Amino acid sequence: MDRDNLKTLLITANVGSLFDHKHLLQPWLKNLFQAISDKDPDFIAVHCQEIGGKNFTKSMPNVDSWISELMTSEALKLYDKARIFLDRDYEAHDTFT
């Protein structure tokens, strides 16, 4: 990796509707993995809003499988580090982000 010319891919998405309409998860992941493959970045940052959907108490169980699929994908196997920051305390309505 050339540290002077680090190829970076920054992605941000509001994914709430993916969890509200579960059939949209696979196509979204497929497009994400295709973008990673096409761009071949040295560094990737993915920022997602509304993980778990608008009805997060109902949809949060789908989050673990989504994260697992993301982290075990062929597209990310080329990277030696990954970090996920996730607010799971959805019952704390005053601080849940």
Provide structural commentary.
Keywords: Hydrolase. InterPro entries: Endo/exonu/phosph_ase_sf, INPP5A. GO terms for molecular function: inositol-polyphosphate 5-phosphatase activity. This is Endo/exonuclease/phosphatase domain-containing protein. By secondary structure, the protein is of the alpha+beta class. It has one domain (3-76). The protein is built from 4 helices and 2 strands, in the order βααβαα. The protein has a two-stranded parallel sheet. The radius of gyration is 15 Å and the shape is globular. The N and C termini lie far apart (35 Å). The model has no long low-confidence stretch (mean pLDDT 86).
Number of strands: 2
Q: Could you give the distance between the termini?
A: 35 Å
Major sheet size, sense and barrel closure: 2 strands, parallel
Number of helices: 4
Using the CA coordinates, give the radius of gyration. Answer: 15 Å
Overall structural domain count: 1
Give the topology string: H per helix, E per strand.
Answer: EHHEHH
Helix content: 25-40%
Question: Which runs of at least 5 residues are low in confidence (pLDDT < 50)?
Answer: none
Shape by Cα distribution? globular
Secondary-structure-based class equals alpha+beta
- Give the overall pLDDT as a whole number: 86
Major sheet strand order: 1-2
Percent of residues in β-strands: 5-15%
